[in-house]
Amino acid sequence: MTSIQHNLQQVRQRIAAAAASCGRDPQEITLLAVSKTKPASDVAAALAAGQRAFGENYVQEGVDKIAALGDAGQPEWHFIGPLQSNKSRLVAENFAWCHTLDRLRIATRLNDQRPAHLPPLNVLIQVNISDESSKSGIMLEALPELAQAVAALPRLRLRGLMAIPAPEQSYARQLAVGQRMADALASLKKHYPSVDTLSLGMSDDMDAAIAAGSTMVRIGTAIFGARDYGATTHNNN
Ligand SMILES: *Cc1c(COP(=O)(O)O)cnc(C)c1O
Questions:
Q1: Which domain CATH number covers 165?
Q2: Is residue 142 within 8 Å of 103, Cβ to Cβ?
Q3: Where is the Alanine racemase N-terminal domain (predicted)?
Q4: Long-range contacts for 70-79 (Cβ within 8 Å, ≥24 apart)?
């Protein structure tokens, strides 16, 4: 067994245990394998071990990997990094999902740039749930207006919400943040039937995120090992 295959098994077991301990079906929770800075060969190893959804933070690095891997094993690519408008076309043309939508201007560009032969781009609106100093994500108060505008764009499919909460050591605080996100998702669902996804939870807060209702956890290091930014050639977006 390769170490990636072994690590994937362990992460899947952790998800199953977290789901079991709060009475949820583990099938409701998608594992997004975050492959940023890792070579295409690592993604290929994960695909061979049955992993389908992969997350990339840097547009060009992701596009290069998508081209290198092709359709074998049917990977599903998620863009999870900060998105600048000059890179929106590459995301619209290459990815199946974008988790970091936080501006109507970028939503409009993604909508206009999504190729006709592809299904609508699945989008999550990124919410700034706890880290007020962060520049990414919108405040919850602004969500209804942005959601309404995004839902009206035919080449985007509004699937839900994403957050990167500020690090919290305490489970209770992680859970409280997760519940605010889950509440926001529940009210969004009432208006938009396409909404079904809460992208929340990384290695350190996965259990609380799952207890709160996350449907997609984003895990990198525990699958692919520590990242060596110094050795990679990606640029900053
Ligand atoms: C890098 C990254 C992850 C994964 O982080 P790990 O600590 O490697 O598990 C998850 N979500 C986002 C948005 C990331 O940028």
A1: 3.20.20.10
A2: no
A3: 5-227
A4: 72/44, 72/47, 73/44, 73/47, 73/48, 75/43, 75/47, 76/52, 78/32, 78/53, 78/54, 79/55
Site to probe by mutation for ligand 1, drawn from 34, 36, 124, 205 as the one with most ligand atoms within 8 Å of Cβ, is: 34
Name the token pair of 50: 């049955």
Quote the number of domains for the chain.
1
Query: Is residue 55 domain-resident?
Result: yes
Tokens of 8: 């994937």
The answer to the question of residue 233 being in a domain is: no
Nearest to residue 119, comparing CAs of 159, 175, 162, 60? 159
- Parent domain of 121: 4-219
How many CB atoms are closer than 10 A to CB 92? 21
Chain CA centroid to CA 216, Å: 7
Does residue 105 belong to any structural domain of this protein? yes
Q: Does the predicted model carry a pTM greater than 0.85?
A: yes
Q: Which of 14, 100, 126, 202 to mutate to test the pocket of ligand 1 (most atoms within 8 A of CB)?
A: 202
The amino acid that residue 157 corresponds to is R
